[in-house]
Design brief:
Blueprint (H helix, E strand, L loop, with lengths): L1 H37 L8 E2 L3 E20 L2 E7 L3 E9 L2 E4 L2 E2 L12 E8 L3 E9 L4 E7 L13 E2 L2 E13 L8 H4 L4 E2 L3 E17 L1 H11 L14 E22 L2 E20 L6 E19 L3 E15 L4 E19 L8
Antiparallel strand pairs: 1-12, 2-3, 2-4, 2-18, 3-9, 4-5, 4-6, 5-7, 7-8, 8-11, 9-10, 11-13, 13-14, 14-15, 15-16, 16-17, 17-18
Length: about 350
């Protein structure tokens, strides 16, 4: 009797346990759905929601980059010739993906070994930047300062293939006033900002830089071009073969969008980042290389002018980043970014905006 009663109680309790598990799973799914929806939740009074699911655009891009090395009063800026690239892009909600081709060299990767990849995700609440750049070997010397009495201008524009710079990183940030202010309206056209508004930003990021320098080749080039300068010697602080930098940063800033006319906006934002940087590498004359840790200040700036009537859109924007490294031996300052002009078309009208017959 006891065994039968026990068996019946266990059997009777099984459906209750199953129902509880199902309810918990449903609550978890609803909670996750609410979190995802919150990323694009805003007030329609300030922001016009996207009317279409997807977008296609043609974009012209001109990348900018300069890399400056300085040591003990000497400094050399390396910068490639800036070229215009054109290509298609496709967008779906938060994500825009595409590629561009050099108009003078229609190849996916040019002969100089350049590799570039950028992915930006703009939602109402958060943004993420992913970037990967390998600069190739088509640098030229710019703004050379060798010291008192030496005309560094004789080196300006001289090609130099003995330096290679790489940068890989990710930056994520939170938009506090995301119910009223829209980053996607300026940088990922789909929604439209209707009332001028701004927001504070806060974020974090990780970046890895690599620098390879043929010091001997650089010294030979300097001596050849400055034959009459007996003191045209590079400072020993630049005497290294390769260095790899890592930094973890925390950033804060502010962004504001002005509604100039109906469907026309201008957005400007800036973020300052406090970065804790570590480095290791090999320098000429040192057996074990060197390492250091230091805090530096970096920056990110974004600017955009956009016209968007929900179906067609066009605009120009610029995104610039700075990375700064200062050690007892030398300083390295890198500025890179892109200037873009584009025209696009939104399609696949959402169900709630379709005209009812």
């Amino acid at each position: 009797m006891l065994m039968a009663v026990t068996f019946m109680r266990a059997t009777a309790s099984t459906p209750l346990a199953t129902d509880t598990t199902v309810n918990l799973n449903q609550k978890m799914i609803r909670a996750m759905r609410d979190v995802v929806r919150e990323f694009d939740r805003f007030e329609d009074e300030y922001i016009e929601p996207p009317h279409y699911e997807m977008a296609v655009e043609i974009r012209a891009t001109r990348n900018y980059e300069d890399f400056r090395l300085s040591s003990n009063g000497q400094s050399i800026m390396f910068s490639p010739d800036q070229r215009i690239k054109v290509g298609p892009y496709f967008g779906w909600r938060w994500i825009f993906l595409g590629t561009t081709f050099d108009l003078k060299n229609i190849r996916l990767f040019g002969d100089s070994g350049k590799r570039e990849f950028d992915l930006a995700i703009y939602s109402s609440q958060v943004g993420v930047d992913l970037f990967y750049r390998r600069t190739g070997s088509d640098y030229k010397l710019r703004e050379v300062r060798m010291g008192y009495g030496i005309d560094g201008g004789l080196l300006d524009g001289t090609p130099f293939d003995g330096i290679s710079v790489g940068i890989t990183g990710v930056n994520a940030y939170y938009i506090f006033n995301h119910h009223h202010f829209s980053y996607p309206a300026a940088f990922s056209p789909g929604v439209c900002q209707k009332i001028s508004c701004g927001s504070w930003l806060a974020g974090a990021g990780y970046t890895q830089n690599t620098l390879d320098l043929d010091f001997n080749k650089l010294q030979q080039l300097v001596e050849q071009r400055l034959l009459n300068s007996q003191q045209a010697k590079l400072d020993s602080g630049m005497m290294f073969n390769s260095v790899k930098y890592h930094d973890i940063s925390l950033s804060a800033g502010y962004a504001y969008t002005w509604v100039l006319l109906k469907n026309l906006i201008f957005c400007a934002s800036g973020q300052a980042a406090i970065a804790y940087k570590t480095s290791n590498g090999r320098t000429i004359g040192e057996h074990d290389g060197f390492s250091f840790s230091k805090v530096n200040l970096d920056g990110i700036g974004r600017f955009a002018l956009v016209y968007n009537n929900t179906r067609w859109y066009a605009g120009v924007n610029a995104i610039l980043r700075t990375n700064n490294y200062h050690t007892s031996r030398f300083a390295a300052n890198n500025i890179f970014g892109s200037f873009n002009a584009y025209i696009g078309y939104n399609f696949l009208l959402k169900k709630k905006y379709r005209q009812k017959n």
